[in-house]
Design brief:
The chain has 536 residues and is of the alpha/beta class. It contains ten helices and 20 strands. The chain has helices spanning 83-86, 137-141, 178-183, 221-237, 270-273, 296-299, 328-342, 372-381, 421-437, 467-472, and strands at residues 3-10, 16-22, 30-31, 43-44, 74-78, 100-102, 131-136, 206-210, 244-247, 302-303, 346-351, 389-393, 446-447, 453-455, 461-464, 477-483, 486-492, 501-508, 515-522, 527-532. The strands form four sheets. Strands 9-8-7-6-5-12-11-10 form an eight-stranded parallel beta sheet. Strands 3-15-14-18-19 form a five-stranded antiparallel beta sheet, with no helix packed on it. Strands 4-20-17-16-13 form a five-stranded antiparallel beta sheet. Strand 5, helix 1 and strand 6 form a beta-alpha-beta unit. Helix 8 (372-381) packs parallel to helix 9 (421-437). It is globular, with a radius of gyration of 25 Å.
Length: 536
């Protein structure tokens, strides 16, 4: 077996040793036989002409015109600064590609009722499909006293449900149970004025769980798997049939923003797949027999593989082509390529257009916006993986433009000190893709992903590379979607300097088509093009 050296790490005694891992086999180069067939030029997708905003704490949604997301996809707005545009037009985010909005960004008493019971006859202006809710840890911890939500090691102490047949008629309701915390979510319909007289059900279109207590000691894993399985099952039972429920964790595999070869050999993480089983105390704490043998993954409507970026992903001077190097596009694509093989469930990524906090250089605070090509590329390349949706998140809610810079970038209000032009580039990417090619996302499209076949030597040899291999070979990234006789192609040479040019060839020789084309790339610009293929 061939071995490659992938890193140096320290042992407990302080000395270093090399970690050896088996290499993935390289794709076989296919050598073209005969002469190169005639090529068909792609029609390049237009780019909007706009001057990115330089105002602090501000961005414009009018850098592009109206467009909507295809009905086969979802895009939830939980970003910053919706307040900047509400007075002008409350509906604008829905005409700039977003299909739903998180309840924390909704307009009070217009889209969501916040002041007690809604007025008689009042109904939300939002359709159920436009309603989304991120349920954070504090819902379980603070409102229902479940310490487990913050400290997973308390899983074995958590009450599922108190048996109502054993409760005294005069005893107060015990709300400190996972049953109550999950069941009372049905009251979400009250916020939209559409609760029936009996048997309330939540009428959110999407519910995202963000508890972030999935880590636990091995000895307590069964207790954790039991609770997660019971929780999502109970939540779904108290939602409308149209509500989709998923969670930022567990995911089947988390590459944590890297795109290593070894990720492609990953197996599903335990919390997604571990079946519920009774423990020594689970019955007395109310765990029902009906979830035995079922897992969290059985009940989840979607999985949420995705990654936040750290500053090295935005640093063009940093190394990006080593197996362990960070690379914005290899990470974006690789996370999806790995997880789609582990589960057929719909995928919704959690995206943020700033760097997340980490110990890596220049990453301690969320102060660096995604560069233009990265922000635009997130709005294009991600959808070439066949993913179902995105949740666009930000740690800020409202923005107040033109505020003075705070003395400490980490203090409250730092969001107003950021340049939010990255939002404009992101929406521009969405507009280029869905305004001009939304018809291709009708459920009949095929996503080539790693089967996208390219040549980097003028058509002599052809390769099908995954995201990691594209990174480590330092070649242009190309991905394609085929729908009938239409082919849509996205391409870029990530991290290329503005004066650089690159050429790459693509072919599609399946289903009777014999399509060849050459793509010319300038700098790190995001190329998007389409063609009609002919058979033969």
């Amino acid at each position: 077996m061939k071995l490659i050296v992938v890193g140096l790490t320290a042992c407990l005694a302080g000395a270093g040793y090399w970690v050896l891992r088996p290499a993935l086999p390289e794709p076989t180069a296919i050598v073209l036989q005969g002469t190169l067939p005639p090529q068909v030029a792609l029609a390049a997708t237009p780019r909007a002409q706009f001057t990115p905003s330089t105002r602090k704490g501000y961005y414009s949604l009018d850098v592009v015109g109206d467009f909507t997301l295809p009905t086969t996809k979802v895009l939830t707005f939980c970003g910053a600064g919706r307040n900047l545009h509400i007075q002008q037009d409350r509906t604008k985010i829905f005409r700039r590609g977003f299909s739903s909005v998180d309840q924390s960004r909704m307009v009070p008493n217009v889209e969501i009722w916040r002041d007690g019971f809604p007025a008689k006859g009042w109904k939300s202006t939002l359709k159920p499909s436009q309603r989304a809710w991120i349920i954070y840890q504090n819902h379980f911890r603070d409102a229902f006293g479940l310490a487990w939500a913050q400290n997973s090691e308390k899983a074995g102490e958590t009450i599922y449900r108190v048996d109502p047949s054993r409760a005294r008629p005069s005893a107060p309701l015990n709300r400190n149970t996972l049953f109550q915390a999950s069941t009372e979510l049905r009251g979400g319909c009250l916020s939209f004025g559409d609760c029936p007289d009996v048997d309330w059900k939540s009428t959110f279109g999407l519910i995202y769980l963000d508890i972030e207590n999935d880590g636990i000691s091995v000895a307590n894993r069964q207790e954790q798997a039991n609770l997660y399985t019971y929780m999502i099952k109970t939540i779904k039972e108290n939602c409308s049939p149209q509500t989709l429920v998923g969670s930022i964790a567990p995911v089947l595999h988390n590459s944590v923003g890297y795109s290593r070869a070894e990720d492609y050999k990953a197996s599903a993480e335990w919390l997604w797949t571990m079946p519920a089983q009774h423990t020594a105390t689970s019955r007395q704490r109310g765990m029902p027999d009906e979830i035995v043998g079922k897992s969290f993954g059985d009940y989840a409507d979607f999985q949420m593989p995705g990654t936040y970026y750290v500053y090295p992903d935005f640093d063009y001077s940093a190394p990006h082509t080593g197996d362990g190097d960070r690379h914005w596009l290899a990470a974006l694509l690789g996370e999806q390529e790995v997880n789609m093989k582990l589960s057929p469930k719909k995928r919704i990524a959690w995206q943020w257009l700033f760097n997340t906090q980490s110990e890596l250089p220049n990453s301690a605070k969320a102060e660096h916006a995604a560069p233009p090509a990265v922000a635009e590329g997130m709005g294009i390349f991600y959808w070439f993986t066949g993913a179902f949706g995105v949740l666009l998140w930000d740690d800020q809610i409202d923005l107040t433009p033109d505020q003075p810079s705070p003395a400490d970038p980490g203090q409250k209000g730092v969001g107003n000190d950021r340049n939010y032009a990255c939002y404009e580039h992101y929406v521009h990417g969405l507009w280029r893709l869905f305004k001009h090619h939304g018809d291709l996302f009708n459920g009949r499209e095929t996503y080539l992903n790693e089967a996208t076949e390219c040549s980097y030597d003028g058509g002599k040899t052809w390769y099908k590379y995954n995201a990691n291999q594209l990174k480590t070979h330092d070649v242009p990234f190309v991905r394609a979607i085929v729908n009938g006789d239409q082919i849509l192609v996205a391409a870029t040479k990530a991290y290329a300097r503005s004066g650089q040019t690159n050429q790459v060839m693509l072919r599609y020789i399946q289903n009777g088509y014999n399509f060849y084309t050459t793509i010319s790339l300038k700098g790190d610009e995001i190329y998007l093009g389409r063609a009609t293929m002919k058979r033969g």
